[in-house]
Each structure stands twice: as C-alpha cells, then as structure tokens.
Write a structure and sequence with these properties.
The protein is α/β, with parallel strands linked by helices and about 270 residues long. It has a 6-stranded mixed β-sheet with strand order 5-6-7-3-8-9, sandwiched between helices. The chain has a 3-stranded antiparallel β-sheet with strand order 2-1-4, with no helix packed on it. A hairpin with a 2-residue loop joins strand 8 and strand 9. Helix 3 packs across helix 4, helix 4 crosses helix 5 and helix 8 runs antiparallel to helix 9. The radius of gyration is 20 Å and the shape is globular. The chain binds adenosine-5'-triphosphate and magnesium ion.
C-alpha cells in the first residue's frame, strides 16, 4: 500500500478535557517535532501513532492512513507495518553478531541486495557515532549511542518504513546535525520527540504538548529556520571543543576564539 498521508485526530488530555488541536495531517517528506515539558504526553502521542490508536488508548485519539482507518494487516504482520519506532530506552537482549542481525533483517525484509544493504546501514550508522561499530561484535556490546545509530540506519535503509518515530534521540550522544542531514535525503514522514532546538527549528512544524494534550501546532517560520542554522553552528562549535577535550588536549583562549570564528560565531 502506498502511504501518502497520516492524520492524527485529537482526543482528550489527562484531565479529560478535549485537546485544543483536533487534527494534524502529515504528508510524505514532512518532518514533525513533538515538544513539551517532561511528563506532558509526548511519548504517549507517538505511541498512539505507532499503535494506530482507534479510540482505544487513554487519549482516545484516532490515527488515519490515507484518510481511512489502517487495515489490521499492519498490526498483525510486522513486515507490513509502515511505522518504525525508535524508543527512548534501547537495549539489545540478543548477543547475535551485528553483521548477522543486519543480514537476517535484510533477508526477512527481502532487500534486493542484502550484502550492499548491510554495508550501507553500517556506513550510515558510523557517520553518527564517535567510534565505529564492530560488525563482528555482539549486539549486546554496542554502546547506547551505537545501538540507536544502528537502529535508525536499520529502520531507514532495511526497514524501508515510510513513517519513522524517534523518541529523544538527542540523549543518545549521536551526531545529531549529521543525522538530520542524512535523514533529509529520504522521502519519509519523520516524527521527532525532542527537547533539542536544532531538531525543532529544522522541522516543518511542531506539536506542543501540555497535560497529555496537543496544545498547539506551529509551522516553523522562515525566521525560525534562520535561527535554526545559527544553532547548528553553535552545535558544531561545541562538538569541536568536545573533540579537542576528549582527545586529551589542553584549551587556550586563542583555540577557543579560533573555534568560534571558524563557525561564524565571532
Ligand atoms: N491523553 C492522555 N490521557 C491519559 N494519560 C495520558 C495522556 N497523555 C499522557 N498520559 C500519561 O501521562 C504520563 C506521562 O506521559 P509521557 O510519558 O508520554 O510524557 P513525556 O512527555 O514523554 O515525558 P518525558 O519527557 O519524561 O519522556 C504517562 O503515564 C502517560 O501514559
Ligand atoms: Mg517520553
């Protein structure tokens, strides 16, 4: 089935009051952020999407695909499920080798060329991590950041899911700026739960959560996009400082000034 659009139909917040936003439409290629304080219902909202809620979750929201209720097939057959959810807490229980895991997934998903797909996933994932993933190592030995980077690459490349939900990937210590650049090359719907201004300001729009309810839906203005680019420069400067310190260097004021200048911040 060709997915063109998903719709969130509003339900009720934790107090039982109707949500202020009663409909959100997303089309392929859209990047949406979900923002709001801790406990405001961000994860609950993307879980509703992942479950194709049909007034059967506490929020009583409904999810439509191409303007109709999704077919049962999506829930019953994982290979047909169009949604990949990268959760806030990721860990692997299997001590299978990384190469083995990717290879099996590529075959289950009937990838045209499993070998090249596996190396594409590793290449994508390793652009997001500090130290590269060891393909002959066990899944259980991956660090938190490496696990999430691998899952994101796997969902985008092997899973080929048209809708990808990412819960607070900024906390995984992956290279977020690079992740956003890479994800922009794929025509999918990305929904980010995030506290990070870079992700929010590079999204097309954002849903603001409060008390378990969708409070507002804001389109990112051109002015906000420009601010987002400046925030990205700030991030590059921080990464550069972090790398110098991580590699054991001592910092001098002139080094700091050079980092700020090379990122157009001074
Ligand atoms: N519409 C709702 N109706 C009833 N309960 C809700 C609703 N939305 C969220 N909740 C409940 O409120 C609690 C907090 O929600 P949730 O975990 O989604 O917050 P969060 O914004 O993801 O927080 P964090 O930033 O800490 O991850 C959960 O127990 C969730 O089940
Ligand atoms: Mg959460």
């Amino acid at each position: 089935m060709d997915i063109r659009k998903i719709t969130i139909l509003g339900g009720y917040g934790r107090s039982g009051a109707r949500e202020l936003v009663d409909q959100v439409d997303l089309k392929m290629g859209d990047l949406l952020s979900v923002v709001g304080p801790t406990g405001s219902g961000k994860t609950a909202l993307i879980n509703d999407i992942g479950l194709f809620a049909n007034e059967d979750t506490p929020s009583k929201r409904r999810i439509l695909i191409n303007d109709t209720s999704p077919s049962e097939d999506f829930l019953d057959d994982p290979a047909k499920n169009p949604i990949a959810l990268i959760t806030q807490h990721t860990g692997f229980l299997s001590d299978m080798r990384v190469s083995n895991f990717l290879d099996i997934h590529a075959r289950v998903r009937k990838s045209a060329n499993p070998d090249s797909v596996v190396s594409d996933v590793l290449d994508f994932a390793n652009q997001l991590t500090g130290e590269p993933i060891i393909v002959d190592g066990a899944m259980t030995e991956l660090s938190g950041g490496q696990s999430r980077a691998l899952l994101i690459a796997d969902a985008v490349i092997i899973g080929n899911s048209p809708i990808i939900l990412l819960d607070e990937i900024e906390n995984a210590g992956i290279n977020l700026t690079r992740a956003l650049e890479l994800l922009h090359n794929y025509e999918k719907i990305f929904i980010f739960v995030t506290h990070d201004p870079r992700i929010t300001l590079s999204s097309d729009y954002r849903i603001v959560m409060k008390g378990g309810a969708m409070q507002d839906a804001i389109t990112t203005s051109p002015e906000e996009k420009r601010i987002g680019e400046k925030v990205t420069h700030m991030d590059r400067a921080i990464i550069s400082l972090r790398n110098q310190i991580s590699s054991g260097e001592r910092m001098l004021e002139k080094d700091f000034r050079a980092v700020m200048e090379s990122n157009w911040l001074a």
